[in-house]
């Protein structure tokens, strides 16, 4: 790993599971931090999100690349003492337990900062450390519903829908990463630590800030940004079209063979089209049914109307532009074969064989981490016999 990466030399104690916390610490690892993932003996529950391949899955690989894993039973007294030692020696501690749980293990911010006042400590929770909902169990879907997110995505009958991606967890990881990064800068410049409360609820609110304000200003009935915009069914699929400005609308009408709509006094301004959205959009949608997606895309692009075919992930991976800009790295992964990994903006492309592309197995680095912390073989053996720690079981070699 290059020592020129910005967080090179920063030690991170990562006691997070799932997606939000692991996303933040994965980004720290990709920027050079030494991230030690502390997992229960059975592994992070985020390893079970979707189809499993041994103790790995797509989510685990994506959000745990570049880390080292040590399996510790925090309910075991010796395991707890070991975790306390590792946490006290870290520059950054990140955890995702319910409020108060880390304190039971002697791993709260107050516990760690007594020994390391410069520590940057971030807690990921559903609703935050305080308030009437702070102790409630939470998932991404719960916060999508609670925050108003689902009202933006409705089915044909108007029922609010959950987004098919773990969106709030992913964005919480981004907010957590930027909060940690700025706190580390303060730590380096001024020698001061920090405690950061980062909740899924507040992250969802921050992400939707403009929509929340818009809803308030317009008494719960915010107008659309412009018309026409949306996904249109074609003869063989779907295409998304955005006619943002006046010349876009005129060009769209020309491609549709409906110059009359451009001249119609009912629709000849942005304000009129917004006002009459419900009568104009069915007319436009009916025209799109007459030809294929590729035909519409080609002609709309030629006249400068913004559009995109609604792709599958396979379409996206095979697209010539995606390949030309190296959007995806194809990496040979341990036990998993060749996998597509999206390159992260601001970072160098993922390199074949780089440890930053690998997700550790549960307890894969337990022995390595303990030896680096000063434990000898006898002490490690004793901790293992006491079931305070776990190590990755030996893998079966494939039969010849």
Overall structural class, as computed from helix and strand content, comes to: alpha/beta
Could you give the distance between the termini? Answer: 35 Å
How big a fraction of the residues is strand? 15-25%
Q: What letter string, H or E per element, gives the SSE order?
A: EHEHEHEHHEHHEHHEEHHHHHEHHEEHHE
The overall average pLDDT, rounded, is 95
Shape: elongated
Largest pleated sheet: 7 strands, mixed
Give helix % range: 40-55%
Which residues form runs of ≥5 with pLDDT under 50?
A: 396-400
Helical run tally: 18
Radius of gyration (CA) equals 26 Å
Topology summary:
Blueprint: E1 11-15, H1 20-30, E2 34-39, H2 58-64, E3 68-72, H3 77-88, E4 92-95, H4 101-104, H5 109-115, E5 120-125, H6 140-146, H7 167-190, E6 194-199, H8 200-207, H9 209-217, E7 229-233, E8 238-242, H10 246-256, H11 259-263, H12 270-275, H13 277-288, H14 293-302, E9 306-309, H15 313-318, H16 320-324, E10 328-333, E11 337-342, H17 366-372, H18 377-385, E12 389-390
Parallel strand pairs: 1-2, 1-4, 2-3, 4-5, 5-6
Antiparallel strand pairs: 3-12, 7-8, 8-9, 10-11
Helix pairs in contact: 1-7, 7-8
């Amino acid at each position: 790993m290059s020592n020129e990466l910005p967080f090179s030399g920063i030690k991170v104690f990562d006691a997070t599971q799932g997606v939000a916390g692991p996303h933040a610490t994965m980004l720290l690892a990709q920027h050079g931090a030494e991230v030690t993932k502390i997992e229960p003996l059975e592994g992070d529950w985020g390893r079970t999100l979707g189809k499993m391949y041994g103790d790995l899955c797509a989510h685990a690989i994506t959000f745990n690349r570049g880390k080292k894993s040590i399996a510790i039973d925090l309910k075991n007294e010796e395991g707890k003492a070991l975790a306390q030692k590792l946490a006290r020696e870290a520059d950054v501690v990140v955890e995702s337990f319910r409020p108060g749980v880390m304190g039971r293990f002697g791993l709260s911010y107050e516990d760690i900062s007594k020994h390391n006042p410069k520590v940057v400590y971030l807690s990921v929770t559903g609703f935050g450390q305080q308030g009437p909902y702070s102790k409630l169990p939470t998932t991404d879907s719960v916060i999508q519903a609670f925050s108003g997110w689902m009202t933006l995505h409705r089915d044909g009958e108007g029922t609010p829908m959950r987004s098919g991606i773990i969106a709030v967890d992913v964005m919480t990881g981004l907010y957590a990463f930027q909060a940690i990064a700025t706190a580390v800068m303060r730590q380096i410049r001024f020698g001061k630590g920090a405690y950061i409360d980062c909740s899924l609820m507040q992250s969802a609110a921050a992400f939707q800030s403009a929509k929340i304000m818009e809803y308030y200003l317009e008494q719960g009935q915010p107008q659309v940004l412009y018309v026409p915009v949306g996904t249109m069914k074609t003869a063989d699929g779907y295409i998304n079209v955005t006619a943002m400005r006046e010349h876009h609308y005129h060009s769209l009408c020309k491609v549709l063979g409906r110059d009359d709509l451009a001249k119609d006094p009912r629709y000849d301004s942005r304000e009129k089209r917004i006002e009459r959205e419900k009568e104009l959009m069915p007319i436009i949608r009916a025209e799109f049914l007459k030809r294929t997606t590729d035909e519409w895309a080609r002609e709309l692009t030629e006249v400068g109307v913004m559009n995109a075919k609604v792709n599958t992930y396979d379409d996206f991976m095979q697209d010539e532009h995606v390949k030309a800009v190296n959007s995806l790295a194809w990496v040979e992964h341990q036990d998993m074969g060749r996998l597509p990994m999206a390159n992260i903006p601001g970072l160098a492309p993922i390199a074949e064989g780089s440890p930053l592309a690998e997700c550790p197995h549960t307890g894969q680095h337990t022995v390595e981490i303990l030896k680096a912390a000063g434990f000898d073989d006898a002490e490690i053996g004793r901790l293992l016999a006491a079931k305070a720690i776990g190590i990755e079981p030996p893998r079966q070699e494939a039969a010849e």
